[in-house]
Amino acid sequence: MMVIGIVQARMDSKRLPGKVLKTILQKTVLEHIVERLGCSKLINKIVVATTKERIDDEIECLCDRINMTCFRGSQDDVLDRFYGAALMFGADIIVRITADDPLKDPEIIDKAIQIMLEHDYDYVSNTIEPTYPEGIDVEVCTFTALKKAHQEARRASEREHVTPYIWKNPDRFKIYNFKNSDDFSSLRWTLDTEDDLIFIRKVYAALYKEGQIFLMKDILELIKKEPTLSLINKGHERNEGYIKSLLQEELR
Asked: For the chain, which has fewer Cβ within 10 Å, the N-terminal or C-terminal residue?
């Protein structure tokens, strides 16, 4: 069973351009994400999936420097980019990772994969009904489901965000959303603004040690001790508006 973690990354982000190559303790955001994924016990291979646009040559150069597999595909049809990467490397199960979440928890990623391995699901995530901090999101799907979505999805929104065609059609796919025992969905641990970058850098400054991975529980403990940290990027809405808008498309 080949489990591949695919990291979607591009330089041309709208709100914080070049954020995947911003530095945290002398490493880029993308390097930290790859390092954290490398601590997963169930992911067999990591692939960075970027675009064919010239601006993203920098991402491929970084991948070459750190000996990381890089796949280049469509800029806007991210579903096609994911499908191409999954097909090329023989994925049975795909873990979708966005390159603006340098606080990803490999234990939570493994939990999602384990649920997929133990049950007959097409798609497993903690995002449909969020209870984890934004930035700890994980989506796992089978290659069969991804292939079906790639063949059948028609709307631009379904192809830009990779998985909506799957989770919008629970009558066609077996879907499971797992929840945390406590609801931390109001916490923002993703990277989309300068405030987010300041917050994440402070977390790394407090918790990061070379060769060791801190987890969600460690960040929660840090925030408990230093509650003002969460005020740094407070006020930004959780990025779930697109989920609501995609669901509303079905009513129009």
From this structure: C
pLDDT tens digits along 136-160? 999 999 999 999 999 999 999 999 9
Q: What are phi and psi for residue 69, nearest 5 degrees?
A: -65, 130
Per-residue pLDDT tens digits for 186-240:
999 999 999 999 999 999 999 999 888 999 999 999 999 999 999 999 876 666 5
Domains along the chain with CATH numbers: 3-249 (3.90.550.10)
Dihedral, CA atoms, 89, 153, 33, 233, nearest 10 degrees?
A: 180
Nearest alpha carbon to residue 135 among 73, 251, 220, 246:
220
pLDDT at residue 252 above 50?
no
pTM of the model: 0.92
Reduced to 3 states (helix: H, G, I; strand: E, B; else coil), residue 152 is helix
